[in-house]
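Render this sequence as a predicted structure.
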Amino acid sequence: MGNGFNASQWIYQRLMARLCQQIVRGELKPGEKLPSVREIAAQAGVSPNTIQRIYRRMERMGIVEIRRGQGSFLTENTEELERLHVQLRIECIGEFVKDMKDMGVSPSKIIEDIEKYLKQ
């Protein structure tokens, strides 16, 4: 039987995360036209349907505007872009804290270690 691993879902999540990271790093600018669905699909070696799903999800999130006949564009709404940035930071912190707790590290020790790390 299966182990619950769904390769297509993993690829979808990784591509979605990569696009979001490009946005928050400023590699994609507000109002900028995004690469075409076919272009990204070819680069990533996935079906254009996968990329189309990602763009539609990003549109529902308010960070992409799909303009018929013109393509997909990053929103110029800086509040939505900031909301994405905050969401990604919280997700990263959540994963880190979960990993640390799984190793048996106390919250106070996590904070202490972070402070030491930031001073390096």
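Summary. The chain is about 65% helix and 5% strand. Helices lie at 7-24, 37-44, 48-61, 78-102, 107-119.
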